[in-house]
Amino acid sequence: MRIVDTIRRKRDGARLSDGELRDFVAGVTRGDIPDYQISALLMAIFLRGLDSGELGVLTDAMLHSGRVLDFSDLSGAKVDKHSTGGVGDKISIALAPAVAACGVRVPMISGRGLGHSGGTLDKLESIPGFRTDLDAAKFRSLLGTLGLVLAGQSDDLAPADRRLYALRDVTGTIESIPLIAASIMSKKLAEGIDALVLDVKVGGGAFMKTAERARELARTLVGIGKAAGKQVTAFMTDMNQPIGHAVGNFNEVYEAVDVLRGSGPADTRELTVTLGAEMLRLGHAVDDAAAGRARMERALDSGEALECFLRLVTAQGGDESVFTREPRYAPHQQTITAPRSGHVTTIDAEAIGVAAVMAGAGRARKEDRIDPTVALFVHARIGDRVQAGSALATLHTATAEPGIAHRIAGAFAIGDAPQAAPRLVQETIS
Ligand code: URA
How far apart (Å, rounded) are the C-alpha atoms in residues 202 and 207? Predict the structure, then answer.
């Protein structure tokens, strides 16, 4: 079957055969379908969708486009967490070492920034020297010795997703339930895990803007995982404002390290504890979520989790001394102030994410380089009472960027009536 015929058939709403989907993934993996044809089929899938049978075949083909890792010889459960993508989402950086410090192995393979959302890999690479391109032997040895590894997709792990992900980022084809589900689950099922906790973001800064869409994505992800014999729990969590204050790369790592020091913003710590408690439960380290919460809190407050993170940074080539100094950000600092007094009623988290990307914290084209010193700090939260002229956000950029600061200012709505803060964890699906 010629790829152009597959594109036409999906464009016209046909159901793709197993052969068409497998040929497409094989062609993507070999590199012999040009970007424009891959992008056209992605757009057709975005517009027409996939039924559950097509999705199962696409996920399976992507999963088997490379190696499937097997850590069954390492003792204990291997559990990972994945977020569907948000703004200021630095949770993995605090969560993974905290869970590993509690005795559950975490083989975490993360992605790069996608659209307006940041990527854990880009954030980790903002630590000087930190390597995320680990070979299979190094990956296994860190998981064996430290119980933790934070890496990127190697060339041979779900390679089809790597190429599709990079193209989706720049072709307006991200916010599709089947494409997100196949992307996440092909990578996660290739990781050799026993269980998975999913953080499905919902709200203005998420790819899923409504609870209905987020629930559908969560159920789709859980269904694929269960069909593959894994234990999976999905949390639907709020993304109507950035998580914590830091949006960028190194500043987000630094904020995650604050959580590992037993402090950090309340929402960032709460999400770390909630997701970690479930990882510990699925990994059979505790009997229930309450015991998991207590264990996570102890790991954060005692310094065990921080120690685990710092050992990992060193083992992956990073300079852990950066966490002993005050961080330095890009030289141009602009403060975005409240135009009036009142209550913060909404924050357009997507606009904040887009502004951070434009400032250099993300990519507009797949070959763009990220500036790790670009940093945005969002001080105000939904429900806060602010005074006219008080700081809503601070932006650090390489050159003066009044246009970006203006965009950030436009992301805040201030009204007279008090506004309740959104609930962080909205639903649990397992
Ligand atoms: N995370 C992924 O790994 N893939 C997506 O498509 C979206 C979020």
Answer: 7
**Residue 82 is a catalytic residue:** yes
404 neighbors 374 (Cβ within 8 angstroms): no
Closest residue by CA, ligand 1 atom 5: 180
CA distances from 148 to 238, 286, 323 (A): 27, 18, 19
Pocket of ligand 1 (CB under 6 A): 84-85, 111, 114, 165, 179-180, 183-184
366: pLDDT strictly greater than 80: no
Whether the CB-CB separation of 408 and 333 falls below 8 Å is answered with: no
pLDDT band per the 50, 70, 90 thresholds, residue 407: very high
Distance separating alpha carbons of residues 296 and 99, to the nearest angstrom: 7
The residue whose CA has the least distance to atom 6 of ligand 1 is 180
Q: What are phi and psi of 145, to 5 degrees?
A: -85, -50
What's the confidence (pLDDT) of residue 169?
A: 84
String of DSSP letters for 171-189: TT----HHHHHHHHHHHHH
Residue 102: burial class (beta carbons within 10 Å; 0-12, 13-18, 19+): buried
- Name the closest-CA residue to atom 2, ligand 1: 184
Q: Could you report the per-residue pLDDT of 175-213, keeping only the tens digit for each?
A: 999 999 999 999 999 998 999 999 999 999 999 999 999
**What number does the ligand 1 atom closest to the CA of 187 have?**
3
- Burial (CB count within 10 angstroms: exposed 0-12, middle 13-18, buried 19+), residue 411: buried
Q: Please give the average per-residue pLDDT across 287-303, as a whole number.
A: 98
How big is the chain, counted in residues?
A: 430
